[in-house]
Allantoate amidohydrolase (Nocardioides fonticola), 397 residues
Amino acid sequence: MSDVESMWRTLAPLGHTSSGYRRRPYDAAETEMRAWFVEEAQARGLVVEGDGLGNLVAWWGPDDAPAVLTGSHLDSVPDGGAFDGPLGVVSALGAVDLLRERGVAPVKRLGVSVFAEEEGSRFGIACLGSRLVTGSLTWERARELRDAEGRALPDVLAASGLDGVPMGLDGVEAFVELHVEQGRGLVDLDAPVGMAACIWPHGRWRFDFTGEPNHAGTTRMEDRADPMLTYAVTALSAAKQARLTGQRATFGRVAVEPNSTNGIPSRVTAWLDARCATDAELERLVAVISEQAAARAERDGTWVMVTAESVSPSVDFPADLAARLGPGLPVLPTQAGHDAGVLAAAGIPTAMMFVRNPTGVSHSPEEHAEMADCLAGVDALADALERLVAPGEGDDA
């Protein structure tokens, strides 16, 4: 059994439930996974550094040299799959093993990174750890974030012995993230590994629908100001607009007050996830959905307020870097957000690699990758990292 297979066997039970994986940031399962990472890194003689957010980097190579980062994240969405995030971390450690087997002597520092709260499943902002590290999100804003139980981010961090101070990325010259593909592009291309061309612009918007609470039985239908109806029509309208334009719009999270079976709600809060091929199309799609929500609210006698909680512009990964690090590999876009997109937007030369997902399903227990494809991904990642940290003739130093 390879080290990669052994690592997967160790990780498989962590956070696993009957309905999928629950590796919420700073909870027991995710904390146990970070402890696993530290143990694996130290067993390889790597020097582990952490920051006040739970971000981790395990270093190999000369201390005073420029740095190259690889890695991904360990947290999951509720009831998620096994591969989204951990595949990139396991593959990065496996790539280090493979480079050592090849006798590679890095002239640059290689860091295997784990970024915290990538999914945004606890505090509502995706890639929270990398956003704070790069400065694209300020601590002043982050400190106000609260989870579903009302716990503020600083308090959750403090309970984990963390102070919220991010690490720096000075001296980092490149970042390479390997990830399970979250679609069927590589299946259709009959390829085990590919490179990312770009990340679609995407974001999360909170829709607050308010109305008049009343009795479900005694209130005539024509006398109601029911925010649930306004929300329902808005969700249907969003799906229609996305289908018409070939984009993505999803209301995947809803909170209802007072959440009573025999009562008309006073408030419905719903979160829209929207993704489009271009920034202009994203702005247009959200504007149309918001306008239709407002028009429906006027008709229903309700009110709606739309708040942008997190918006990420489109990211184009350098084509020349992808060609150098993954020569001959297919190149395809992704509609999913990643830490790689955050680092790329911060000006760090970045590449992404995908491993084929035969189900095409992600954020679900059905997410999968065959071990043969995972090992092919480790090989491809090791090749790419070797070109960056130990360049030979014809490679850029």
Q: What stands out?
A: Residues 3-199+314-389 form a domain with the Aminopeptidase fold (CATH 3.40.630.10).
